[in-house]
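Bumping with the actual sequence this time:
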Amino acid sequence: MERELAKVNDFYQRKQALFGARFENIKRQQQIYDAMLGSELGGERALPAADGSQPPSPGPSVQLRAAHTKIQRAILELYRGVDLLKNYRVLCYTALVKALKKYQKAARWCAGTDHFLHKIDTCYIATSRDLNAVAAELEALYVEKYAGGSRQKGMGALRVAPAGGDGGNQSSIFRSGLMLGVAGPLIARAIYEANLLSNEQRVPYHRQLLQIYGSIFLVLLFLLLFSLNILAWVKTHVNYRFIFEIDPRDHLTAWQFLELSSLFVLIASGVIWVNFAMHIDHGSYICVYALLGVLLGVLFLPLKLVYWTSRWWLIRSLGRVVCSGLFRVGFRDFFLGDELCSLSYTLSTMLLLGCAGANG
């Protein structure tokens, strides 16, 4: 127990010193930023227009805006680390005390445990308040500089929601159910129309088209079922956000992931219904190309819509897989590469589509 207590104290002390040094560095960076911002805006205000009037300030430069974002992210990340270390302190203290109580109950001996309990109560992790001071200063700095003085807004940004915090997703669940409910009949009707004998002449190469659409829907089914993976990880307390290097303050819950997947399914079902039920016979593959264009367009849409930060995470991850070998890879790269191997049928069918289109 003494060895464990010494190990815990040493680790906590080193991490606390590290976080303290990082906080001092952030404060220096913030001071430099404030001075540069004041100098830049003051210089702009000092230059009158030709008519003698004072022009409106255009705001900070691109470099200063980038620095502002980096300092804000550094504060958020440091606060998260401080919060984790505070939880570590509570967890270790509780573990040591409970171990003593179990020992006392089994050995029926109080003298040694009382002596050691006093040692725990007076050790560094129990008496140090430096970490609380760092957390309070971080909160004050963030509220003043990045939350407009609103403590409620600032603390809302600083605090990390628990991994299982799926509350407030009723709208995502409703939209997912609505989209899947519309998509189901469209797919059923399209398959029925595709297999009618009268449609063999109306929709050329309809069997090949069904094969291609099937390969696309395989990916979409894959995405729908992946939301069950996220639910299972949350229920079993697997910290998937840490494993996949996902921002804990900005990530999709299982229901939001299902909503995004349902949107893709609805788009695909609408296109396949148009292709077969509307008898699109001008250019057999025109609807497939349109579908791929829309799906890729939604995925790569460079606007802050449709869960942009999560789509950007996936785009960067796919880029890391494509460029693997040029830099060090991590677990998420292996995981995503393995999932792509599971979709080899789809990828090979896309090659078939390219050959079919190129050769008429």
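The tokens above came from a reply further down the thread. The first helix runs from residue 2 to 45.
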